[in-house]
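Study this pair:
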Amino acid sequence: MKIHIGLGAAILLAAPSTAQTPRPGLDYASASTIVGSCVQWAMENDRNVAIAVMDNRGMLVAFAHMDGASAAVGELARWKANGSAMFGRATADIGALNPPPNLPHAATLTGGVPIYTADGVPLGGVGTSGLRPDEDAACGTAGVEAAGLTTSRGE
């Protein structure tokens, strides 16, 4: 019996692995840095924002909804993050593509930016809402850069 178990284990260990090559993913530490940077900026400027960070599968990784920010602001932040994560581009650019008006769960308003590794691997998107549109995008971009990531594919 011991021989059969040992032989089976040896065969399994010798068989080639069929596992998929691992890809970089957006971790909580990076997402938290992105959120924290935006919250810090908003507090320094006496503003109330919501920030959502989603991975490239559209899963929410980190979210902050500051006191005084409306519920609508939080929902818009999630839509912006989802749009950027799904399409790998800024929400302002998605809006310029003239998408259908019923594009599900993706805002086309300025304030969502994609998240990439330095090598151009897509990780997700960040959406910020509650500021002026240009400030929303700048806050998200600053958060991504604070995490050592980029908003550009690098092409």
Remarks:
- The chain has one domain: 24-146.
- The helical segments are 2-14, 28-44, 71-87, 91-96, 133-146.
- The chain has a mean pLDDT of 87.
- The two ends are 59 Å apart (CA to CA).
